[in-house]
TrEMBL record:
Binding annotation for Mg(2+) 1: 45-46, 121
Binding site for substrate: 53, 266, 337
Name the UniProt record assigns to this protein: Thiamine-monophosphate kinase
Gene: thiL
GO biological process: thiamine biosynthetic process; thiamine diphosphate biosynthetic process
Residue intervals of the PurM-like N-terminal domain: 27-137
Its biological purpose: Catalyzes the ATP-dependent phosphorylation of thiamine-monophosphate (TMP) to form thiamine-pyrophosphate (TPP), the active form of vitamin B1.
Chain residues that bind Mg(2+) 3: 29, 74, 212
Entry binding sites for Mg(2+) 2: 46, 74
InterPro entries for this protein: PurM-like_C_dom, PurM-like_C_sf, PurM-like_N, PurM-like_N_sf, ThiL-like
Lineage, broadest ranks: Bacteria, Pseudomonadati, Pseudomonadota, Betaproteobacteria, Burkholderiales
Alphabetical UniProt keywords: ATP-binding, Kinase, Magnesium, Metal-binding, Nucleotide-binding, Thiamine biosynthesis, Transferase
């Protein structure tokens, strides 16, 4: 049987990019990172557990990609450039082919973003991946959840709702989609999300607050609103007819489409706020990052949060293009992903 260090040598030894800010990579008790002068170190950790965050029979190469992508997405939501990451991996058994595919997917994405694997841990146990990522950002330009201001526009990148639709098809909750290209698209968006690093960097000095859409658009935007002590109006007409919703999602019955778009999560797009006077700069940043963005609402006055991490008061108002309350159809789900709920197989 392969030992821990044999597994690391075969699958996880990663050449450090010359521009990564890594002084010492894997192989020692600690890695050494050196952010550029004037930069703050940004760090985030995400855990993916079989049966809660992914199905046990998922393609391992896609799983490797996603495990790192969800962490890089957190850096994007802070406007941070990736430097390095660590991986803690629990395995029920050693499967060399499975591990090779996992590493291939993860390290390909790492190389695409100049992000070095600098350490971690492996052990026997229920299948679990825990990634900690490190990046750098000028402190004054980091996007803070508490920085949304009344009068800001609310924007979202890419398309939202795709991943939830992909999961519904995968789990057999709904029949396969009418078009094969739509089916392939939503499956790829579920299993291989794109971290919006380039957009996060391009929005430095323009955006005020940002968060990535991991648990659902309404739920994640709600974290920003609570931390900032504000509320938001979301224009459902602008959201549904614009480029933020893929045709595969738009073709669903309205309640199902709204549930995917507003509560689906797992898209890892950025929802961010910026001053209305800087709309042209947002569009220019999006064009430079080759990432479409859609303006979907505005920041309004709201109650001051008593505790930004646990503020359950509703802060998102759904409206139509004329600003009237939007008639949400029965059966629409607005709550975000629950990390303590088990996925069904």
């Amino acid at each position: 049987m392969s030992g821990e260090f044999d597994l690391i040598a075969r699958h996880w030894w990663h050449t450090v990019p010359s521009s990564s800010g890594v002084v010492l990579g894997n192989g020692d008790d600690c890695a050494l990172l050196a952010p550029a002068p004037g930069m703050a170190l940004a760090t985030s950790t995400d855990m993916l557990v079989a049966g809660r965050h992914f199905l046990p029979d998922v393609d391992p190469e896609a799983l490797g990609h996603k495990a790192l992508a969800v962490n890089l997405s957190d850096l994007a939501a802070m406007g941070a450039r990736p430097l390095a990451f660590t991986l803690a991996l629990a395995l029920p058994r050693v499967d060399e082919a499975w591990l090779a595919a996992l590493a291939r997917g993860m390290l390909a994405l790492a190389d695409a973003h100049g992000c070095a694997l600098v350490g971690g841990d492996t052990t026997a146990g229920p299948l679990t991946l825990s990634v900690t990522v490190y990046g750098e950002v000028p402190p004054a330009q980091a996007f803070r959840r508490s920085a949304a201001r009344v009068g800001d526009d609310v924007w979202v990148s890419g398309t939202v709702g795709d991943a939830r639709l992909g999961l519904a098809v995968l789990l057999g909750e709904r029949p396969p989609l009418a078009r094969a290209d739509w089916q392939a698209h939503v499956r790829a968006r579920l299993e291989r999300p794109t971290p919006r690093i380039a957009l996060g960097l391009a929005l430095r000095g323009i955006a005020h607050a940002a968060i990535d859409v991991s648990d659902g658009l309404v739920a994640d935007l709600g974290h920003v609103l609570a931390a900032s002590g504000v509320a938001a109006e979301i224009d459902i007409d602008a959201l549904l007819v614009g480029q933020a919703v893929h045709p595969a999602v738009r073709a669903l019955p309205l309640a199902e489409a709204l549930s995917c778009v507003l509560a689906g999560g797992d898209d890892y797009e950025l929802v961010f706020t910026s001053p209305a006077a800087r709309r042209s700069e947002v569009q220019a940043a999006a064009a430079a990052a080759q990432t479409p963005v859609t303006r979907i609402g505005r920041i309004m006055p709201g109650p001051v949060a008593t505790h930004p991490l646990a503020d359950g008061r509703p802060r998102v108002r759904l409206c139509d293009a004329q600003g009237r309350p939007y008639p949400v159809p029965p059966g629409t789900r607005l709550g975000g992903f629950d990390h303590f709920a088990t996925m069904s197989a």
